[in-house]
Write a structure and sequence with these properties.
Length: 254
Protein backbone atom coordinates (compact mmCIF):
# COMPACT_ATOMS: atom_id res chain seq x y z
CA UNK A 1 0.00 0.00 0.00
CA UNK A 2 1.22 3.49 -0.79
CA UNK A 3 1.98 6.18 1.75
CA UNK A 4 -0.66 8.54 0.38
CA UNK A 5 -3.00 10.11 2.91
CA UNK A 6 -5.83 10.00 0.38
CA UNK A 7 -6.02 7.86 -2.70
CA UNK A 8 -9.07 7.85 -4.96
CA UNK A 9 -9.13 5.35 -7.79
CA UNK A 10 -11.83 5.62 -10.45
CA UNK A 11 -14.47 6.72 -7.95
CA UNK A 12 -17.98 6.59 -9.37
CA UNK A 13 -21.09 7.91 -7.68
CA UNK A 14 -24.63 8.09 -8.99
CA UNK A 15 -27.81 9.49 -7.55
CA UNK A 16 -30.53 7.42 -9.18
CA UNK A 17 -29.76 7.49 -12.89
CA UNK A 18 -27.58 10.56 -12.68
CA UNK A 19 -23.88 9.84 -12.56
CA UNK A 20 -22.26 12.64 -10.58
CA UNK A 21 -18.74 11.26 -10.23
CA UNK A 22 -17.53 9.54 -13.38
CA UNK A 23 -14.23 8.06 -12.33
CA UNK A 24 -12.34 10.44 -10.07
CA UNK A 25 -8.65 9.75 -9.48
CA UNK A 26 -6.74 11.77 -6.94
CA UNK A 27 -3.88 11.35 -4.51
CA UNK A 28 -3.00 13.56 -1.57
CA UNK A 29 0.29 13.07 0.25
CA UNK A 30 0.64 13.50 4.01
CA UNK A 31 0.95 17.21 4.80
CA UNK A 32 -0.28 18.24 1.37
CA UNK A 33 -2.87 20.95 0.85
CA UNK A 34 -4.96 20.08 -2.16
CA UNK A 35 -7.45 22.67 -3.40
CA UNK A 36 -10.38 21.63 -5.55
CA UNK A 37 -12.09 24.13 -7.83
CA UNK A 38 -14.76 23.73 -10.46
CA UNK A 39 -18.18 24.87 -11.59
CA UNK A 40 -21.33 24.38 -9.55
CA UNK A 41 -22.63 20.84 -9.85
CA UNK A 42 -19.29 19.35 -10.92
CA UNK A 43 -19.30 16.94 -7.95
CA UNK A 44 -16.86 18.63 -5.55
CA UNK A 45 -19.02 18.31 -2.44
CA UNK A 46 -20.10 14.82 -3.39
CA UNK A 47 -16.47 13.77 -3.71
CA UNK A 48 -15.61 15.19 -0.27
CA UNK A 49 -18.61 13.40 1.21
CA UNK A 50 -17.44 10.13 -0.33
CA UNK A 51 -14.06 10.49 1.39
CA UNK A 52 -15.65 10.13 4.79
CA UNK A 53 -18.35 7.77 3.53
CA UNK A 54 -21.23 10.17 4.03
CA UNK A 55 -21.98 9.00 0.49
CA UNK A 56 -21.55 5.44 -0.65
CA UNK A 57 -19.57 5.06 -3.86
CA UNK A 58 -20.84 2.84 -6.68
CA UNK A 59 -17.48 1.80 -8.09
CA UNK A 60 -13.79 2.41 -7.59
CA UNK A 61 -11.78 2.58 -4.40
CA UNK A 62 -11.10 5.24 -1.81
CA UNK A 63 -8.31 4.91 0.73
CA UNK A 64 -7.49 7.18 3.65
CA UNK A 65 -4.08 6.59 5.18
CA UNK A 66 -3.89 3.25 3.43
CA UNK A 67 -7.24 1.99 4.72
CA UNK A 68 -10.18 1.34 2.44
CA UNK A 69 -13.02 3.73 3.30
CA UNK A 70 -16.38 2.18 4.10
CA UNK A 71 -15.56 -1.36 3.04
CA UNK A 72 -13.52 -4.39 3.90
CA UNK A 73 -11.95 -6.29 1.05
CA UNK A 74 -11.82 -10.03 1.38
CA UNK A 75 -11.25 -12.63 -1.31
CA UNK A 76 -11.54 -9.97 -4.02
CA UNK A 77 -14.97 -8.85 -2.78
CA UNK A 78 -16.03 -5.72 -0.96
CA UNK A 79 -18.14 -5.88 2.17
CA UNK A 80 -19.63 -2.72 3.56
CA UNK A 81 -18.54 -1.86 7.08
CA UNK A 82 -21.02 -1.61 9.93
CA UNK A 83 -22.15 1.84 11.05
CA UNK A 84 -19.94 1.60 14.11
CA UNK A 85 -16.87 0.84 11.98
CA UNK A 86 -17.67 3.67 9.56
CA UNK A 87 -18.05 6.04 12.52
CA UNK A 88 -14.62 4.97 13.78
CA UNK A 89 -13.07 5.75 10.38
CA UNK A 90 -14.84 9.09 10.23
CA UNK A 91 -13.39 10.12 13.58
CA UNK A 92 -9.99 10.55 11.95
CA UNK A 93 -11.36 12.97 9.36
CA UNK A 94 -12.36 16.51 10.26
CA UNK A 95 -14.93 18.22 8.09
CA UNK A 96 -15.76 21.90 7.89
CA UNK A 97 -18.75 23.00 5.84
CA UNK A 98 -19.96 26.27 4.41
CA UNK A 99 -22.52 26.43 7.24
CA UNK A 100 -20.95 26.06 10.63
CA UNK A 101 -23.71 24.01 12.32
CA UNK A 102 -22.55 24.82 15.83
CA UNK A 103 -24.83 23.77 18.68
CA UNK A 104 -26.68 27.02 19.47
CA UNK A 105 -27.26 26.21 23.14
CA UNK A 106 -23.58 25.56 23.83
CA UNK A 107 -20.73 28.01 24.30
CA UNK A 108 -17.74 27.98 21.97
CA UNK A 109 -15.76 25.86 24.45
CA UNK A 110 -18.67 23.46 24.94
CA UNK A 111 -19.04 23.04 21.19
CA UNK A 112 -15.36 22.14 20.90
CA UNK A 113 -15.48 19.77 23.91
CA UNK A 114 -18.60 17.92 22.88
CA UNK A 115 -17.21 15.22 20.59
CA UNK A 116 -14.12 14.38 22.68
CA UNK A 117 -16.34 14.00 25.77
CA UNK A 118 -19.18 12.10 24.08
CA UNK A 119 -17.25 10.02 21.58
CA UNK A 120 -13.78 9.63 23.03
CA UNK A 121 -14.88 9.71 26.69
CA UNK A 122 -12.26 12.35 27.51
CA UNK A 123 -12.86 13.69 31.08
CA UNK A 124 -14.67 17.04 30.95
CA UNK A 125 -11.94 19.04 32.71
CA UNK A 126 -9.29 17.76 30.31
CA UNK A 127 -11.53 18.31 27.29
CA UNK A 128 -12.24 21.88 28.39
CA UNK A 129 -8.54 22.63 28.82
CA UNK A 130 -7.87 21.32 25.31
CA UNK A 131 -10.86 23.25 23.92
CA UNK A 132 -9.47 26.49 25.32
CA UNK A 133 -6.08 25.74 23.74
CA UNK A 134 -7.70 25.08 20.38
CA UNK A 135 -9.80 28.24 20.59
CA UNK A 136 -6.62 30.18 21.36
CA UNK A 137 -5.02 28.60 18.31
CA UNK A 138 -7.83 29.92 16.09
CA UNK A 139 -7.60 33.34 17.74
CA UNK A 140 -10.65 33.04 19.99
CA UNK A 141 -9.08 32.71 23.42
CA UNK A 142 -11.29 35.54 24.66
CA UNK A 143 -14.54 34.06 23.31
CA UNK A 144 -14.59 30.63 24.93
CA UNK A 145 -17.75 31.43 26.91
CA UNK A 146 -19.66 33.02 24.01
CA UNK A 147 -22.67 31.34 22.44
CA UNK A 148 -22.73 31.09 18.62
CA UNK A 149 -25.33 33.88 18.45
CA UNK A 150 -22.78 36.12 20.15
CA UNK A 151 -20.12 35.43 17.51
CA UNK A 152 -19.62 36.74 13.97
CA UNK A 153 -19.77 34.32 11.05
CA UNK A 154 -15.99 34.26 10.79
CA UNK A 155 -15.67 33.56 14.50
CA UNK A 156 -18.26 30.80 14.29
CA UNK A 157 -16.39 29.20 11.43
CA UNK A 158 -13.18 29.34 13.45
CA UNK A 159 -14.99 27.58 16.31
CA UNK A 160 -16.10 24.96 13.79
CA UNK A 161 -12.47 24.44 12.76
CA UNK A 162 -11.41 24.14 16.42
CA UNK A 163 -14.22 21.66 16.95
CA UNK A 164 -12.98 19.50 14.07
CA UNK A 165 -9.40 19.70 15.38
CA UNK A 166 -10.51 18.55 18.83
CA UNK A 167 -10.85 15.02 17.48
CA UNK A 168 -7.20 15.10 16.36
CA UNK A 169 -7.94 14.25 12.74
CA UNK A 170 -5.24 13.13 10.35
CA UNK A 171 -7.09 14.74 7.48
CA UNK A 172 -9.24 17.86 7.23
CA UNK A 173 -11.85 18.36 4.53
CA UNK A 174 -13.14 21.88 3.88
CA UNK A 175 -16.19 22.47 1.70
CA UNK A 176 -16.28 26.15 0.73
CA UNK A 177 -15.54 27.22 4.30
CA UNK A 178 -15.66 30.93 3.49
CA UNK A 179 -18.43 31.23 0.92
CA UNK A 180 -21.16 32.04 3.44
CA UNK A 181 -19.09 34.80 5.03
CA UNK A 182 -19.17 38.53 4.55
CA UNK A 183 -16.09 39.49 2.53
CA UNK A 184 -14.38 41.22 5.44
CA UNK A 185 -14.53 37.99 7.50
CA UNK A 186 -13.04 35.68 4.87
CA UNK A 187 -9.41 36.58 5.66
CA UNK A 188 -9.49 35.55 9.31
CA UNK A 189 -10.75 32.07 8.43
CA UNK A 190 -8.22 31.66 5.61
CA UNK A 191 -5.47 32.74 8.03
CA UNK A 192 -6.43 29.95 10.42
CA UNK A 193 -6.39 27.47 7.55
CA UNK A 194 -3.02 28.75 6.42
CA UNK A 195 -1.71 28.18 9.96
CA UNK A 196 -3.00 24.62 9.91
CA UNK A 197 -1.29 24.02 6.60
CA UNK A 198 1.98 25.38 8.01
CA UNK A 199 1.64 23.00 10.96
CA UNK A 200 1.58 20.12 8.47
CA UNK A 201 -2.10 19.17 8.42
CA UNK A 202 -3.23 17.28 5.34
CA UNK A 203 -6.10 19.24 3.85
CA UNK A 204 -8.49 19.03 0.94
CA UNK A 205 -10.12 22.39 0.38
CA UNK A 206 -12.99 23.03 -2.01
CA UNK A 207 -12.84 26.76 -2.52
CA UNK A 208 -13.42 29.72 -4.79
CA UNK A 209 -10.53 31.57 -3.16
CA UNK A 210 -7.96 31.39 -5.93
CA UNK A 211 -5.50 33.52 -3.94
CA UNK A 212 -5.56 30.96 -1.15
CA UNK A 213 -5.19 28.11 -3.62
CA UNK A 214 -2.21 29.81 -5.21
CA UNK A 215 -0.43 30.75 -1.98
CA UNK A 216 -1.26 27.86 0.34
CA UNK A 217 -2.15 25.00 -1.99
CA UNK A 218 0.45 22.42 -2.90
CA UNK A 219 -1.79 21.22 -5.68
CA UNK A 220 -4.84 22.48 -7.51
CA UNK A 221 -7.44 20.12 -8.92
CA UNK A 222 -9.95 21.31 -11.49
CA UNK A 223 -13.12 19.23 -11.58
CA UNK A 224 -15.83 19.47 -14.19
CA UNK A 225 -18.83 17.24 -14.83
CA UNK A 226 -17.72 14.53 -12.44
CA UNK A 227 -14.11 14.12 -13.52
CA UNK A 228 -10.74 15.66 -12.72
CA UNK A 229 -9.94 17.62 -15.86
CA UNK A 230 -6.47 18.64 -14.73
CA UNK A 231 -4.36 19.01 -11.64
CA UNK A 232 -0.93 20.21 -10.74
CA UNK A 233 1.04 23.01 -9.18
CA UNK A 234 -1.49 25.77 -8.43
CA UNK A 235 0.60 28.49 -10.05
CA UNK A 236 1.00 26.42 -13.18
CA UNK A 237 -2.68 25.48 -13.43
CA UNK A 238 -3.83 29.04 -12.71
CA UNK A 239 -1.48 30.79 -15.09
CA UNK A 240 -1.07 28.21 -17.81
CA UNK A 241 -3.96 25.73 -17.83
CA UNK A 242 -3.62 22.95 -20.37
CA UNK A 243 -7.26 22.20 -21.02
CA UNK A 244 -9.84 24.37 -22.72
CA UNK A 245 -12.42 23.65 -19.98
CA UNK A 246 -9.99 24.83 -17.30
CA UNK A 247 -9.19 27.98 -19.28
CA UNK A 248 -12.85 28.77 -19.76
CA UNK A 249 -13.63 28.24 -16.05
CA UNK A 250 -10.69 30.30 -14.85
CA UNK A 251 -11.48 33.14 -17.23
CA UNK A 252 -14.84 33.47 -15.43
CA UNK A 253 -13.54 33.36 -11.87
CA UNK A 254 -10.15 35.08 -11.98
N1 LIG B 1 -28.37 13.67 -2.48
C1 LIG B 1 -28.45 13.94 -3.79
N2 LIG B 1 -29.45 13.44 -4.54
C2 LIG B 1 -29.52 13.69 -5.86
N3 LIG B 1 -28.63 14.46 -6.53
C3 LIG B 1 -27.63 15.00 -5.84
C4 LIG B 1 -27.48 14.78 -4.42
N4 LIG B 1 -26.39 15.45 -4.02
C5 LIG B 1 -25.88 16.05 -5.11
N5 LIG B 1 -26.62 15.79 -6.19
C6 LIG B 1 -26.34 16.25 -7.56
O1 LIG B 1 -25.01 15.93 -7.88
C7 LIG B 1 -24.40 16.94 -8.67
C8 LIG B 1 -23.11 17.37 -8.01
O2 LIG B 1 -23.41 18.03 -6.81
P1 LIG B 1 -22.31 18.58 -5.83
O3 LIG B 1 -23.02 19.18 -4.68
O4 LIG B 1 -21.32 17.52 -5.54
O5 LIG B 1 -21.63 19.71 -6.73
P2 LIG B 1 -20.58 20.83 -6.34
O6 LIG B 1 -19.47 20.74 -7.30
O7 LIG B 1 -20.25 20.73 -4.89
O8 LIG B 1 -21.39 22.18 -6.63
P3 LIG B 1 -21.40 23.61 -5.86
O9 LIG B 1 -20.19 24.36 -6.36
O10 LIG B 1 -22.66 24.25 -6.29
O11 LIG B 1 -21.34 23.33 -4.38
C9 LIG B 1 -25.43 18.05 -8.80
O12 LIG B 1 -26.03 17.92 -10.05
C10 LIG B 1 -26.41 17.76 -7.70
O13 LIG B 1 -27.69 18.19 -8.04
MG1 LIG C 1 -20.54 21.98 -3.24
Amino acid sequence: MSSDMVKAEAVHKSFGHVEVLKGVDMTVAPGEVSCIVGPSGSGKSTFLRCINHLEKINAGRLYVDGTLVGYRESGGKLYELRDREVAAQRRDIGMVFQRFNLFPHMTAAENVMEAPVQVKKVPRAKARERAVELLERVGLGDKTGNYPSQLSGGQQQRVAIARALAMEPKLMLFDEPTSALDPELVGEVLDVMRGLAEDGMTMIVVTHEMGFAREVGDSLVFMDQGVVVESGDPRQVLTDPRHERTKSFLSKVL
